[in-house]
């Protein structure tokens, strides 16, 4: 049996992918939260603001924006932040 190491918490798991089932579930919830926010509000100017409004850490937001094409319109606020 092959094991993968979760890139988030370091736990070993037997599924495919970068995240263990635990972290994958947490990610799904946070991504849904982010999508919800974007549907109802305009995009804030900075990543900190978005993080504050959604309760998602800027580290996670960075990851979602980089990994998920549907958040490509958020690239601007990363650039604003840098
Ligand atoms: Zn994990």
Structure description:
- The structure is a single chain.
- By secondary structure, the protein is mostly helical.
- The protein has one domain (21-81).
- It has 4 helices and 2 strands; from the N terminus they run ββαααα.
- Strands 1-2 form a two-stranded antiparallel sheet.
- A hairpin with a 6-residue loop joins strand 1 (4-5) and strand 2.
- The longest helix is centred in the middle third of the chain and has 20 residues, at 21-40.
- Zinc ion is lined by residues 6, 8-9, 11, 19-20, 22-23.
Present the secondary structure layout.
Layout: E1 4-5, E2 12-13, H1 21-40, H2 47-54, H3 58-67, H4 75-81
Antiparallel strand pairs: 1-2
The chain binds zinc ion (ZN).
Residues 6, 8-9, 11, 19-20, 22-23 line the site of zinc ion (ZN).
Short summary of the structure?
The protein is 55% helix and 5% strand. It has 4 helices and 2 strands, in the order ββαααα.
SS summary, helix count: 4
Radius of gyration: 14 Å
Unreliable runs: none
SSE order in H/E notation? Answer: EEHHHH
The tally of beta strands, per DSSP, is: 2
Give the fraction of residues assigned to helices: 40-55%
Mean pLDDT: 91
Main pleated sheet: 2 strands, antiparallel
What is the assembly state of the chains in this entry?
single chain
Proportion of beta-strand residues: under 5%
Helix/strand class: mainly alpha
List keywords for this structure.
82 residues, mainly alpha, 2 strands, 55% helix, 5% strand, binds zinc ion
């Amino acid at each position: 049996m092959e094991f993968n190491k979760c890139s988030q918490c370091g736990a070993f798991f037997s599924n495919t992918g970068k995240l263990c089932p635990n972290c994958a579930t947490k990610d799904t919830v946070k991504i849904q939260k982010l999508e919800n926010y974007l549907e109802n509000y305009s995009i804030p100017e900075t990543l900190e603001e978005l993080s504050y409004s959604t309760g998602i850490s800027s580290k996670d937001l960075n990851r979602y924006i980089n990994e998920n094409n549907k958040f490509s319109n958020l690239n601007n606020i990363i650039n604003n932040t840098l």
